[in-house]
Task: inverse folding
C-alpha cells in the first residue's frame, strides 16, 4: 500500500499497517477524489506520481492502460503535469517526454501485446505505426492493429486467446484477403514471436518496408492516398493504391 498526505497534517500510527508514506509539497483538493468512501488521488495525479517511483517502461504502460480503459484523458494528465512541473516534482521530466510523444489523435495500444510490439519497433529504430485504424473503400474492411501509412503495410499481433480457433483463423484469412485486394501488405505475428523472438519480428517488418520502397521506386503509382471517410468517430482510410502483381 502507498499513501499520500499533506505535510502539514499529523498522522497516527496504526499497528500492523504496512505502507509507503508519501508527503508531497503540493496536493490540492482537485487532485483528490474518493473510492467507496476512502480518499484517494485522482487517476491523473496517480499516474504522475508513478512516474517518480517506477521505471519508465512501467510508467508508460500505466499511462496507456489508463487511457485505454478511459479512466483519464490526455488533457487531464497534461493539466496535472503543467501544475506540478514548476514545483520540480520527481518524475516531471519523464511525464513531459511521455506526453510529448502522445499528441493529438493518439490512440494507445489496446493490450500488453500491442505495447510490446511497439516497444520492439522503437528499440529497433523503426517508425512507429498508427494504432487501431479502421480501413475500407466502398465498405468497411475492419480495424487493424497497426498501420505503417507511408508503406501501406498492416501489422497484426495475434494473441492465442483470440486467434487460435478455426473460426478466428478463417475470419482473419478473409480480412487479410480483403486488405490485400485493397492494396495493403499484411503481416501477422503471434504473441510468442512478439515476446520471445523480437528479432524475427524486426527482420520481417524491415523486409516488408524494403519491398515497399522498391515498389515505390519501380512504380510511380505506388504512393498511397489515404482518405478519411466522414461520419465516423474513428478515422477510416480508403485505399486507392494499385500495386504491380508479384
Result:
Amino acid at each position: 500500500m502507498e499513501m499520500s498526505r499533506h505535510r502539514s497534517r499529523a498522522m497516527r500510527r496504526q499497528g500492523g499497517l504496512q505502507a509507503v508514506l508519501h508527503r508531497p509539497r503540493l496536493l490540492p483538493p482537485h487532485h483528490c477524489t474518493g473510492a467507496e468512501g476512502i480518499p484517494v488521488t485522482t487517476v491523473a495525479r496517480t499516474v504522475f506520481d508513478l512516474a517518480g517511483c517506477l521505471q519508465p517502461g512501467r510508467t508508460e504502460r500505466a499511462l496507456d492502460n489508463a487511457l485505454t480503459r478511459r479512466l483519464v484523458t490526455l488533457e487531464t494528465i497534461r493539466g496535472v503535469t503543467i501544475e506540478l512541473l514548476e514545483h520540480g516534482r520527481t518524475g516531471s521530466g519523464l511525464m513531459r517526454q511521455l506526453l510529448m510523444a502522445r499528441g493529438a489523435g493518439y490512440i494507445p495500444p489496446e493490450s500488453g501485446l500491442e505495447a510490446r510490439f511497439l516497444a520492439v519497433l522503437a528499440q529497433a529504430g523503426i517508425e512507429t505505426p498508427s494504432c487501431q485504424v479502421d480501413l475500407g473503400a466502398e465498405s468497411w474492411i475492419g480495424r487493424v492493429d497497426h498501420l505503417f501509412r507511408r508503406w501501406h503495410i498492416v501489422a497484426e499481433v495475434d494473441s492465442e486467446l483470440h486467434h487460435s480457433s478455426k473460426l478466428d483463423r478463417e475470419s482473419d484469412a478473409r480480412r487479410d484477403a480483403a486488405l490485400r485486394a485493397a492494396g495493403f501488405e499484411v503481416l501477422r505475428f503471434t504473441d510468442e514471436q512478439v515476446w520471445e523472438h523480437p528479432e524475427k519480428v524486426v527482420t520481417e517488418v524491415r523486409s516488408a518496408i524494403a519491398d515497399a520502397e522498391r515498389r515505390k521506386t519501380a512504380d510511380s503509382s505506388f504512393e498511397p492516398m489515404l482518405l478519411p471517410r466522414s461520419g465516423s468517430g474513428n478515422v477510416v482510410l480508403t485505399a486507392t493504391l494499385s500495386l504491380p502483381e508479384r
In short: The first strand starts at residue 2 and ends at 4. Residues 2-100 form one domain.
